[in-house]
Amino acid sequence: MKNFNFEKLSLLFVAVAFILIGFYSKNNWHSSRHGGDGLGYYVYLPSVIIHKDLGDFKKTSQALKKYVPDLPDLSADIYGFRPTPTGKLADKYPVGVAILQSPFFLAGHLYAKQTQMYEADGFSRPYQVMCFFSTMFYVVIGLWFLQKTLVQYYSPSVSAITIILIGLGTNLLFFTSIFSAMSHGYQFFAVSMLIYFTNELYKLPNKLNGLLMGMSLGLIAIIRTQDLILGLIPLLWGVNSIQTIKLRGQFIFNHLKIFIFSILAFILTISVQLIYYKYISGQWLYFSYVGETFNWAHPQIINGLFDARNGWFLYTPLMLPVIISLVLKTKNREVWILPLGLIFCIHVYISYSWWCWYYIAGMGSRPMVDIYPILAFALAGLISWILTKPTFIRIPAMIVLFFLGSQNLRFSYQQFHGHIFSETNNKAYYQSMFLKIKPEKEDILAYNTNDVQPDISSLTLVDTFYQTDFENIKENLDTTTVHSGKISINMENQDVNITMMNLIDLNLQKGDWFKVSLDAFVDRDGFWFYNLPKLVLEFKKNESARNIWKHSSPTALINNETNSIWFTGQAKKWERVTYFSKVPFTPDQNSTVRILGFNPNKIKWNMDNLLIEHYKYK
């Protein structure tokens, strides 16, 4: 009974944490109507059930615009909705998420109609709240299925710890309680269910287990089609040798009717997607991601795992020791090691062959959430292995695991509050923010320049590299907006060349620093931070070498009192901006640096009194 309570308490603890964090992040409850993937998964429901406009989404778009006026019509959203050969408009996202959301959507619809406090249009508050919590419901049920399977191979305490770490120590938390409109929480549920009914089928082969196993795999296919590789779980669960391969083949042959029944359940489940494709395009199979592709020859695996832009191990560090532990002979690994090993390798290759390998609209590498249910067995094996060790190993090792898991809480908090934006993070900002909660000025400089700013006390000034007050320029001059003197340089054009200099005579070494100081002014604020204008130091080692851009966004530093990465500068105010930029190579006789402005969105800003100084370490 105590063990039973411990298991239930761990699941209850995670569920309560999900709910509390969900209420803390209540401003995100409407995320399924603000464009992108969340809207694409969800929009089937209001379109089919309320507006009856599947195929053009005109009425649905009109209803949505009441809440998000700036959102373009879905017909103009080239990233999510594309015309098909039939002339209909295809939602590129699969239908599985909408199917799972539908009971919650209908509950919200009934409430909106009965109370008459909200419009029954598919986008008012009741729909958004219900669909937000639908993700939470399915993830908790997924954890329940996962725990029921784990306890068959590991102790109740190990299973409980595993559930807590998977639930709160990975970015599953972020996609459950903070940014729940995405598909990954639903996929976690479907994969957990697949593992459970696969395990049950091999213990008790009957049609019910076969039906639910096939249905689970079908759900996986219509939630995220690329995850069909998880079909290796039913085939290889418990297979670990030539002998077990033979036994598995014999088992399938002996229970062929059950497996045929399972295949039929799979086909029936995915038929919803196939029928949609036929209706929308005239074809039973249709590639809805037109214009997007996989680069199979050049997968970005190292970047996908380790890059500051959503690298999996950097934002879910708990999983690094889990993957390393696959080489250990942990408890009951023979059950899951073959399907996990193959799925992990194939899944990583597929995920990071996608053109957008850093996967925007999330925190950390979100496609990896889909395989957390099977990775949970590796985590449980690692925990079991640790708990067999002496105290002086066991306690520090468990502290490390919980510490690594706690970093996910830190990253989730930072992402929610905008202290980080993981898809745009750079190495310098990640390093500068290491173990911090909120950014300070030097962190914003690191984000702005992609250089961790040096301690000035460790540097010595060598000489002045370049200095100008722009009083003698002939182009891009501005006599109305000046800081001092009579002229400043207008940086509004897309490309503004300031000067080019040879580096050979400057005694520069790789790792030296340029201290850049300037007076900056921006004409307006409120523009999107992606559109920030740049001041660029363009280094070129020789004529055949490629250019190396070391750039900053000076306007983002104008009165940035909150140290925000989203800030674009206080308008109509001059401020002295200073930062350091690291020299990327030791120059040779043909090395140059060009100083220029890059401003493709033509944001009006001015610069005056530019000073660049050369510093070395003492």
Question: Nutshell version of this structure?
Answer:
This protein has 618 residues and is of the alpha+beta class. It has 21 helices and twelve strands.
Q: Could you describe the 3D structure shown?
A:
The chain is of the alpha+beta class and 618 residues long. The chain folds into two domains: 416 residues, no CATH class; 177 residues, Jelly Rolls (Sandwich). Helix content is 46%, strand content 13%. Strands 3, 4, 5, 7, 10 and 12 form a six-stranded antiparallel β-sheet that branches. Strands 6-11-8-9 form a four-stranded antiparallel β-sheet. The protein has a two-stranded antiparallel sheet with strand order 1-2. Helix 17 crosses helix 18. It starts with a helix and ends with a strand. The mean pLDDT is 95.
